[in-house]
Specification:
This protein is α/β, with parallel strands linked by helices. 29% of the residues lie in helices and 21% in strands. Keywords: Hydrolase.
Length: 189
C-alpha cells in the first residue's frame, strides 16, 4: 500500500506576523505539526511547499526571514520541498511528476491560505486525478473584502473555500480522519 502524501502549504514564518492579518483556525499549525510527526513515524511521503514571491516588497520576497519555514514544520533532509511563486503548487514545480514517479495516488493538503494556495493546489490535484483530501481544521485563511465590498471574516472565507472544493475536487476531512488514513489500506472516496 502506498500511503497518501501529506502536502503542507506555505507554513512560513511570515504567516505568523501581524502583517499577515486576522485569521481563523489558530490551532492549525499545531494540528499540522502533529500530522507531520504521524507521517514521519509512518514513513509516509511528505511534501513541504514554500511560496517565494516574484515581488521584492512582500513578506515572501526571496531572502527575507519570513520566507523560512516555521520551526515546528521545518522539513527534514529527506522530505521533498517545492518552491512556488503562484498559488497552485503544481504549476512549474515538478510536484505532479514527483508524486507519479512514486506511485502516489492520494494527497492530504493543509496549510495556508484556504482560499488561495490550498484551494488552488487541491483543485489541480483533483483535476489531475489524485484522490484529494483537504484538512478543514489544519488550514486557515484571512479576512477578505468580497467582490461586493463586504468584509468577510476569516471563518467565512475559509468555509466558502472548503465548500468550493467539497465533492467536486476534494473530500474535506479533519486531522483525526487524516491520521486514520495512514492506518487503512483502502482510502475512502
Amino acid at each position: 500500500m502506498i500511503q497518501p502524501a501529506l502536502i503542507i502549504i506555505d507554513m512560513q514564518r511570515g504567516m505568523l506576523e501581524p502583517a499577515a492579518g486576522e485569521r481563523n483556525n489558530p490551532d492549525a499549525p499545531e494540528r499540522l505539526t502533529a500530522l507531520l510527526h504521524a507521517w514521519r513515524q509512518a514513513r509516509a511521503p511528505i511534501v513541504h511547499v514554500r511560496h517565494i514571491s516574484r515581488a521584492t516588497t512582500t513578506l515572501f520576497a526571496p531572502g527575507r526571514p519570513s520566507v523560512e519555514f516555521q520551526p515546528s514544520l521545518y522539513p527534514l533532509p529527506d522530505e521533498h520541498v517545492v518552491e512556488k511563486n503562484v498559488p497552485d503548487a503544481f504549476i512549474n514545480s515538478g510536484l505532479e511528476r514527483w508524486l507519479r514517479v512514486r506511485g502516489i495516488e492520494a494527497v492530504v493538503i493543509g496549510g495556508v491560505s484556504t482560499n488561495n494556495s490550498v484551494e488552488g493546489t487541491a483543485r489541480s490535484a483533483g483535476n489531475l486525478g489524485f484522490r484529494t483530501y483537504v484538512l478543514a481544521d489544519a488550514c486557515f485563511t484571512f479576512a477578505k473584502v468580497d467582490y461586493n465590498g463586504v468584509l468577510r471574516s476569516a471563518e467565512e472565507v475559509h468555509a466558502m473555500a472548503l465548500a468550493n472544493l467539497q465533492d467536486e475536487y476534494a473530500r474535506i476531512i479533519d486531522s483525526a480522519e487524516a491520521a486514520a488514513l495512514l492506518q487503512t489500506s483502502e482510502l475512502p472516496g
